[in-house]
Specification:
By secondary structure, the protein is α+β, with helices and mostly antiparallel strands. The chain is built from 6 helices and 12 strands. Strands 3, 4, 7, 8, 9, 10, 11 and 12 form an 8-stranded antiparallel sheet that branches. Strands 1-2 form a two-stranded antiparallel ribbon. Strands 5-6 form a two-stranded parallel sheet.
């Protein structure tokens, strides 16, 4: 937590610097230390809901901790070349009237137990670091084109330049699959609709549309009727 007076809250440079300080490292003279412990909220395995649900429990996960970070309003100030999506720290009369500085805490990532994955392979797994999917953060489920309904994605530290994924292998529990093989998956996304999803690009399947009978005075309809004098 940082206490900021009103003059600082209305200064973009100060708020930008304070946010970087809050999200990064604390420097004291020639030394520095990570302030992650100050931004970590312990959840002790509580079952928390991460999105609106169609069925009870489909978006609930046993949660051990949240890492909190701060950000500004949507947009960027002129000259900002960073890739931060919410880095605009200018105030306005509406914010001032509600005593709200242009600074908003959010859940940067969470450490959860992925129950769907454990049920898939038939054994417990270590808790995983995950974060909200960027599309879900920006629009939720309002966009009907987001048919996959992805809520969160894995955020484990990358190794050998690979994407952070949760590698699943049924191992000795292959008989649980009910088939002749042992399914394996590199899980990247957790979807409200489909559950576990692998890493990679997704393309919606083409929809087969049955041909419709011709209507009106279309060329197809005219070709099937007897010729009429004068046509």
């Amino acid at each position: 937590m940082i206490f900021v007076d009103n003059r600082a809250a209305n200064n973009q440079d100060v708020m930008t610097a304070l946010t970087a300080y809050y999200n990064g490292r604390i420097r004291t003279g020639s030394n520095s230390r990570d302030n992650l412990a100050l931004r970590t909220v312990r959840m002790a395995g509580a079952s928390l809901r991460y999105a609106d649900e169609n069925k009870d429990g489909e978006c609930r996960f046993e949660t051990f901790s949240w890492e909190i970070r701060g950000e500004g309003r949507a947009g960027k100030r002129e000259g900002d070349v960073t890739d931060a999506p919410n880095a605009y720290f200018a105030s306005d009369p509406l914010l001032q009237g509600s005593d709200q500085p242009p600074f908003y805490p959010y859940i940067h990532r969470a450490r959860i137990r992925v129950g769907q994955a454990e049920r898939f392979i038939g054994r417990p797994l270590e808790p995983q670091w995950v974060r909200f999917n960027d599309d879900y953060r920006s629009a939720g489920f309002k966009d009907t084109e987001r048919y996959l309904e992805i809520v969160i994605e894995t955020d484990e530290p990358k190794k050998d330049n690979d994407d952070a994924v949760l590698k699943l292998d049924m191992g000795e529990a292959g008989d649980r699959s009910g088939g002749i093989g042992r399914p394996a998956m590199d899980v990247k996304y957790l979807s409200r609709r489909y559950g576990l999803l692998p890493n990679g690009d997704f393309v919606p399947k083409a929809v087969d549309v049955a041909p419709q009978p011709p209507t009106g005075d279309s060329p197809a309809r005219r070709a099937k009727r007897p010729p009429v004098s004068g046509e």
